[in-house]
Design goal:
3-stranded antiparallel sheet, Metal Binding Protein, Guanine Nucleotide Exchange Factor, Chain A, alpha+beta, 8-stranded mixed sheet, 215 residues, binds zinc ion, globular, single chain
Length: 215
C-alpha cells in the first residue's frame, strides 16, 4: 500500500500488514493534541473531543520512495516520542520510538488519495484511549487511559514485534536504529504550556459525540 503526504512529495510503501495488527486507534492524550496544535492541524482531530487517529505498523514494513528530505521531527519534551511530519504541506506522518516495534502512522497519509480507504481496508476505529484528556465530554466507548480492549488489540502485535525484532530497519533512523534521520526539534517547556493553554481556548465543536466508527 502506498501512503503519501498531501502534496505528494513524500511517499512511502507499506510492504505488509501482519494479521496481528491493531488496526485503527484513536488517542485523546494531551500530547497528541498538543502536537496537532503545534503543527496547526487540529482540523485532523477525529472528533470534537480531540482524538488523533493512527494505524500502527511495524518499522521493518515501511520504506520511503521519495521526499525523505521533507521530514521534520518534533519532540514535545527531551524525553518525548519522535513525531514526524512533512514540511512541504504540513502533513503529520508518524510517531516513533527508537527500538520500539511500532510506527504509529497518522490516519491522514492513508487517506489523501481515497478518503474511504481506512474504512474499506481496516473497518471501524477499534479502540479509543486516554479519554481523560478528551476535550469536553469523553466520547462513549473511549477508555480513561488504557483499557483491556486496547491492550488486547496491541499486545500480540508488540510481543511479536519484540520477539522478531521488527523495529530493525526503521526508515526514521539511521542504521544504528537510534539516530534519527533528521535532527529533532525539542519543544521548549514554555511553548508546550502555551500550546496547551491555547488548546483549551480553541472552539470546541458544539456537539461532542463518539466517533461513530468506534466499535
Ligand atoms: Zn507534502
Ligand atoms: Zn496520544
Amino acid at each position: 500500500m502506498q501512503i503519501r503526504c498531501e502534496c505528494g512529495q513524500l511517499r512511502a510503501e507499506i510492504k505488509h500488514f501482519p494479521s496481528e495488527m491493531p488496526g485503527r486507534l484513536a488517542c485523546y492524550c494531551d500530547d497528541c493534541q498538543t502536537y496537532l496544535m503545534h503543527i496547526k492541524r487540529t482540523d485532523l482531530f477525529v472528533d470534537g473531543a480531540g482524538g488523533t487517529e493512527i494505524v500502527p505498523i511495524y518499522p521493518c514494513n515501511l520504506s520511503f520512495s521519495s521526499g525523505t528530505e521533507r521530514l521534520t521531527c518534533l519532540r514535545l519534551s527531551p524525553q518525548g516520542i519522535f513525531r514526524w511530519s512533512a514540511n512541504c504541506c504540513n502533513t503529520p506522518i508518524a510517531n516513533v520510538q527508537p527500538g520500539f516495534p511500532w510506527i504509529g502512522v497518522f490516519a491522514r497519509p492513508y487517506v489523501v488519495e481515497d478518503k474511504h480507504r481506512l474504512d474499506n481496508t481496516f473497518g471501524p476505529i477499534r479502540s479509543g484511549i486516554m479519554g481523560k484528556f478528551a476535550r469536553g465530554q469523553k466520547p462513549e466507548g473511549v477508555a480513561d487511559k488504557l483499557d483491556f480492549k486496547a491492550f488486547r488489540s496491541t499486545f500480540p502485535f508488540l510481543l511479536k514485534g519484540f520477539l522478531l525484532r521488527k523495529a530493525k530497519g526503521s526508515p526514521f533512523f539511521h542504521g544504528d536504529g537510534k539516530t534519527p534521520i533528521a535532527e529533532p526539534i525539542v519543544l521548549k517547556k514554555e511553548l508546550r504550556e502555551k500550546l496547551r493553554a491555547d488548546l483549551s481556548k480553541i472552539e470546541r465543536h458544539s456537539r461532542v459525540h463518539s466517533p461513530s466508527t468506534i466499535s
